Amino acid sequence: MINNKKVLAVIPARGGSKRLSRKNIENLFGRPLIGWAIDAANESKYIDRVIVSTEDKEIVNIAKSSGADIPFLRPNELAGDDITMVDVILHLLSTLEKKDERYDYVVLLQPTSPLRTARHIDEAFRELVEANQNAIVSVCEAEHHPLWCNTLPEDKSMTSFLSKEIHNLRSQDLPKYYQLNGAIYICDTTLLKNEKTFLPSEGCIAFIMSQEDSIDIDTQNDFNRAHLLFDKNIIEKSKLADQLFDNYTKKNYGELPKSENDILIFDFLVKKYCLTKKNKLLVDGEVDYSRIDKKTIKKLSIALKINNEKAQEYISELSTHK
Questions:
Q1: How far apart are CA 238 and CA 184, in angstroms?
Q2: Per-residue pLDDT tens for 244-256?
Q3: Which of 6, 81, 169, 317 has the fewest CB atoms lying closer than 10 Å?
Q4: From residue 274, how far is each of 104, 253, 278, 311, 316 by CA, in Å?
Q5: How far apart are CA 13 and CA 53, in angstroms?
């Protein structure tokens, strides 16, 4: 809730996909793709309810285990390739209203934007309220400047490919262009119903995100790139892992294989989390893993964006070396 207005987050997730089969439940860093959207919504300060709209029973089970609500299955007639997101959301709102459940804002969070976080969502809401507008949509700077683009004739001639005005200009001298990145759409519910779009004719502003956080997964190449972006600090992590390993060896952790850098990184991140939250699990600079219960494991897995079972595995491994 924000300014006493209720907020509904809708995460659409069809079972079918033309380019990348079952992409919404494809594993990305130990978590189904849709799980990242659910985490972001659940961690937002302003979202009151998170609903996944799907016709697929496997997605239902995964979404529920990830912390989302699925009050009903999406009708098959709303699961085709020609159906718009607005069609799906208007049907969902109508169904909820029949049960006397109403919301002032609707947030559309597509699962194909895994690097969008609760921080982005909350910042977008604050900018929307501060600007006193009715809708906000996320954008990022265009990856390829449109002024460097054009169509080609049949003979592939480049004679008039670029306008003369920009022939000798550097890319940094051109005006900035932005593109929709598909990560966040927020709209006043009444306005959405009236105009049937998240880009209403008036009262809509842009929320600017970085290109890096704006990745939109549609193909296997996008998925591969997302893996790299999730592990963008891999070189720094490797250096850190070497330092940690040396430190652990000095503390009689020599039996822990150096190849298990992930465990060392996990311990480092848990320590960082404990320091930030002033958690009592940290004793004399070390984490007391014996005091971590299932509830705490779940909190850690969400905070560190790691699969719950994997977090439990790491904690069990580290506990044996304490």
A1: 33
A2: 555 554 444 444 4
A3: 81
A4: 36, 21, 6, 15, 18
A5: 6
Which one is the CATH code of 7-228: 3.90.550.10, 3.20.20.80, 3.40.50.11890, 3.40.250.10? 3.90.550.10
d(CA 297, CA 44): 20
Instruction: Please report the pLDDT score of residue 107 as a whole number.
Output: 98
Question: CA-based diameter of the chain, in Å?
Answer: 73
Residue 46, token pair as written in the block? 């302003």
DSSP 8-state symbol, 5: B
Full strand arrangement of the beta sheet holding 7-12: 49-53, 7-12, 105-108, 178-188, 135-141, 204-209
Query: CA 254 to CA 241: how far, in whole Å?
Result: 14
Compute the mean pLDDT over every residue in the chain, rounded to the nearest whole number: 83
Domain boundaries, the chain: 7-228, 234-319
Q: Which two tokens stand for residue 49?
A: 């309810």
Would you say the pTM of this structure is higher than 0.90?
no
